[in-house]
Request: fold
Amino acid sequence: MMLSTQCFKGMGTVYLSPLILDVYRGSSTAFSINAGGSQNKVWYPADQLTIIPWQIVKDTMEGEDSKAMIDDSERLPQVNKNYIMNDGLRILGLNPLNPFYKDFGLSFKRSAPTMIRLNALLLLPPKIIVLKDSKDINDRPELTDGGWNLAKQGVQYRNVFMTFSISVFGPEQLLLYPDLWVSKHKPRASIPEHYLSTA
Reply:
């Protein structure tokens, strides 16, 4: 007796062990799953197995599935709202109201369901402080569309060009301190103390 693996392309047909055949009374053309491994294959009828929930998926998703997931994550809020208010409520039987709910005495206060409006929480951007020669507050990086342009915030000091790393000091302030990039012409260099001052 054989079980066909029609759901797996290119795997052909596999033979089940006599032990499984003794207890299995399903169709001889049922789908089967390899619960062993590539070297020691043990095949079980799919309808006799239970998939344990919340397992981490390690395999790469197929192209179409991956594209569909990315497309869903990129949908605008207004598009999601339309899906919920149109398809979602209809699938749940809420618009129009399914007689099943009416039998339990459930009804809407309004003729058509609407979403609750909430005020958006706006977070103030953190202040950027660059530790360098300039003490001018206007010399700090400007916030533009939720980002900072640090292109001109590097410092040249004796053939040494410094860029900046970011440290967080509370929710409202970021401190940029210099990273040292030593040129090949001056393999040993020191950072002036005022660059590292937090005052």
